[in-house]
């Protein structure tokens, strides 16, 4: 495992001379770092600046000069600095104490994170003996006999989950670098800018389509070019992890299931794998929109009826096998009706946009293609017909709004199109985007929809 290589190492100290060993070894190993002079507020980022997370923070605990302050003073001095350097959304990160007084003030630091800075608590606070790198007169030792990089790696290896995440971020950084080197490093210097501009433009044109690219503004053209970069990036990241791993063999990652709300945690992760809530657009591929218009209830009730497996409730009807066929049908009808009514009490009527993304980004679609369906509680999954190729049932996911696990049901029989007119879309006051399914999920749904549409009957006799 490696230290962060993407500028996510920070050092806080009030004496710049006392961090020279870190400067030297990080520079030698090409590890970018941020230095913050702890007694100078001009070094601090703005409090609302979240442009770059920190993954590893080297912290001197005493930023008040050569005197020995009380722990309360240490906490007061560290609070405004840590609040500015570490944002609320900065996670995960570790602190390594680069201090000669770690034994005296470590508890004060931990109290600070348990109290006023609990919203930006590190996953671990580790000791690193700063005095080992200085002689008795305070001068930097040229050779302390310690390898800083290796010692830090040993610290990180104790925290497998954290080091795994840092490793992945490094791979992402390297893969992005590989994209630039693969596409843009083969041109002689005097003509590099001209050829690079040409390639960037052509990549954007390939992604957006010639006519759409020609009529797009600079922002849209640039977005198209960057999306084209992604095609190479995904492949580079995949191969870099699988073929050039550099992962060291060690004990397996351990966890205690008994201490976890396992099903809830898995469904929380599932939502992040399946969907995103950022940048919602009503007609964008993958957008799931909720229909809150009461006038549409009837059609969605029909969709639910069409998706419901009434034979799934037989086991819930006492004495069913003893009834004659007429009473069995009557019981199935009544219990199914009651169950569907119960499902409708907390459902969400939805539309999913399944327009091919290439049609959307190249502005080739005359109609927006969508499928009707609904979101229901996970517990009702067993009542949905899972044998029909016309019905898609999503993996379960956690809904924070209702504090329940849910599933998406789509019925391909209710595939439809509507105009791309922007004014029309803006007038749909009862249709609200709620999240966007990720591209891998949409690809699966589109594939199943295609199979449903293209099913061929086979003529045979028996």
Give a written overview of the molecule.
This protein is globular. The protein is an alpha/beta fold. The chain is built from 14 helices and 13 strands. It has three domains: 9-158, Rossmann fold; 167-254, no CATH class; 262-292 and 347-453, no CATH class. Strands 6, 7, 8, 9, 10, 11, 12 and 13 form an eight-stranded antiparallel β-sheet that branches. Strands 2-1-3-4-5 form a five-stranded parallel β-sheet, with helices on one face. Strand 1 (9-13), helix 1 (20-28) and strand 2 form a beta-alpha-beta unit.
Number of strands: 13
CATH architecture of the largest domain: 3-Layer(aba) Sandwich
What's the level 1 CATH class of the largest domain? Alpha Beta
Low-confidence runs of at least 5 consecutive residues = none
Radius of gyration: 29 Å
Q: Remind me, CATH topology of the largest domain?
A: Rossmann fold
The share of residues in extended strands comes to 15-25%
Structural class, please?
Answer: alpha/beta
Terminus-to-terminus distance:
63 Å
Main β sheet profile = 8 strands, antiparallel
How many structural domains in the coordinates? Answer: 3
Query: In DSSP terms, counting alpha (H) and pi (I) runs of 4 or more, how many helices?
Result: 14
Elements, N to C (H/E): EHEEHEHEHHHHHHEEHHEHEEEEHEH
Helix content: 40-55%
The oligomerization state is single chain
Q: Which of globular, elongated, flat, extended, rod-shaped describes the shape?
A: globular
Would you tell me the overall average pLDDT?
Answer: 89
Element layout with pairings:
Blueprint lengths: L8 E5 L6 H9 L4 E5 L18 E4 L11 H15 L8 E6 L2 H13 L9 E6 L18 H10 L2 H25 L7 H17 L1 H6 L2 H26 L18 H13 E2 L10 E5 L5 H11 L17 H20 L3 E6 L3 H5 L5 E11 L13 E3 L3 E3 L4 E16 L2 H5 L4 E7 L1 H15 L9
Parallel strand pairs: 1-2, 1-3, 3-4, 4-5
Antiparallel strand pairs: 6-13, 7-8, 7-13, 8-9, 9-12, 10-12, 11-12
Helix pairs in contact: 2-3, 5-8, 6-8
